[in-house]
Amino acid sequence: VQLLESGGGLVQPGGSLRLSCVASGIRVIDYAMSWVRQAPGRGLEWVSAISSSSTKTHYVDSVKGRFTISRDDSRNTLHLQMNSLRAEDTALYYCVKSAANALLWFGDFWGQGILVTVSS
Amino acid sequence: EIVLTQSPGTLSLSPGERATLSCRASLSVSSNFLAWYQHKPGQAPRLLIYGASTRATGIPDRFSGSGSGTDYTLTISRLEPEDFAVYYCQQYGNSPSSTFGGGTKVEIK
Questions:
Q1: Order of strands across the sheet with A2-6?
Q2: What whole-number distance in Å separates Cα of residue A42 and Cα of residue A20?
Q3: Alpha carbon distances (Å) from A95 to A77, A99, B98
Q4: Using an 8 Å Cβ cutoff, are B104 and B87 in contact?
Q5: DSSP secondary structure of A67-94
Q6: Does residue B45 have a cis bond before it (omega within 30 degrees)?
Q7: Any residues with CB less than 8 A from the CB of A55 and at least 6 apart, and which?
Q8: What is residue A100's predicted lDDT score, i.e. its pLDDT?
Q9: Which of its termini does chain B have fewer beta carbons within 10 Å around, N or C?
């Protein structure tokens, strides 16, 4: 199983970025998938999750209304659309495969992470 | 929301020694839905333990998890050089959110 994130970079406050995570070795349609982030010098923070059927999504309060998680099953890819970005969104973002089809679950495979920096 | 507090923040030990890491929850973790991860710089976090005490696939038996309710422990029976890393606990399956502890760094003494 490999999860490869892309789409990170430097963006100004108020700007937008779209993260992508291409999976190999699994079908993302079969599992719930999540994004977890780690701000510089901080611990891990679960950000968002989507069910295998894409009918259920979940977000941490700090990103509700700004971030949208989605999946493209034909491309075996997970996305995170991030709008109205703030300095406190600066972090390494990890794509995570849930061990089961449950939103708030533990992850058994993680990507290497992609850096998002929000700064003027 | 369940807050997880890990202690100590840093553990300085020598290879071959035993490491005992603590994770305390602000509320009881239902069904012992508690996981542990190992995280090394520049690498993806690695799942070690889930369900408080079940080792993930391929994890050596020197890693063990225990606990229930609000108090959980990760024990590394004999530290190998590759075990020096940051360890995180995570509670899952409990609304409104999944949360992680702040981490314990196990460093070489």
A1: A2-6, A17-24, A77-82, A67-72
A2: 23
A3: 10, 13, 15
A4: yes
A5: EEEEEEGGGTEEEEEE-S--GGG-EEEE
A6: no
A7: none
A8: 86
A9: C
Average pLDDT estimate for A103-114: 93
Residues 31-50 of B with CB under 8 A from A: 33, 35, 37, 39, 42-47, 50
Contacting B with CB below 8 Å, chain A residues are 3, 36, 43-46, 49, 58, 60-61, 94, 99, 102, 104-113
Across chain B, mean pLDDT equals: 95
Question: Which pLDDT tens digit goes with each residue over A32-44?
Answer: 999 999 999 899 9
Question: What would the two tokens of residue A4 be?
Answer: 């490869």
Instruction: Compute the nearest-CA separation of A25 from chain B (Å).
Output: 16
Q: Which pair of tokens denotes residue B38? A: 């190992």
- What single letter denotes the amino acid at residue B100? F
What are the tens digits of pLDDT across the range A1-26? 999 999 999 999 999 999 999 999 99
Write the CA distances from A83 to A11, A63, B61, integer angstroms.
11, 9, 44
Question: Are A91 and A39 spatial neighbours (Cβ–Cβ below 8 Å)?
Answer: yes
Distances (CA, A) of B68 to A81, A118, B27, B79: 37, 40, 11, 24
d(CA A112, CA B75): 26
> Which residue from A36, A43, A60 is facing B103, i.e. has the nearest CB?
A43
Rounded to 5 degrees, what are φ and ψ at A74?
-70, -25
Task: Go through chain B and tell me how many residues it has.
Answer: 109
